[in-house]
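Check these lines:
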Amino acid sequence: MRKKAMSAAVLGLAIAGATALSTSGASSHGYTDSPISRQKLCANGTVKNCGSIQWEPQSVEGPKGFPAAGPADGRICSGGNGGFAQLDDPRGGQWPATNVSAGSSYSFRWQFTARHATSDFRYYITKQGWDPSKPLTRASLDPQPFLNVPYGGKQPPATLTHQGTLPGGKSGKHIVLAVWNVADTSNAFYACSDVQF
């Protein structure tokens, strides 16, 4: 009798554990892959020593309301998530960068693993003369997004592309910060993409 009770308890724990693992994966969400984001570079294995983000590039979730609220300065690329702090490390300004041209049209692309009702997507870029060897701060960014895409509470498809124009007057290395504001939670998703003008 005692063996049966013990077996039932072990089986119950195993089922609970499997359920927890499967539901934690279901709470995964989205990332940018054009221009390629830091989390996707880690997931691809292009950049090493990334920690757990390499297995869940879609999970860079943090408080919304950026720039007035949201992740703290120096923790923006990780969404303020300490488990993904490797994304905030500037690596001496050596993150691989996508080549882009100032003032040109560009297709910004998101990949989604869970499609939430969406308020909008906003794209920010660093100021000319910012220091790429330091973690990203609000003071490093132009104050207004260069592209804002309202989404009216709809759910995006599995892949979504926004056509926009990169700001003129930029040269050298920069970061494009993409922010996906979810409509029905208090969170947003963050993706930092290094670009070279």
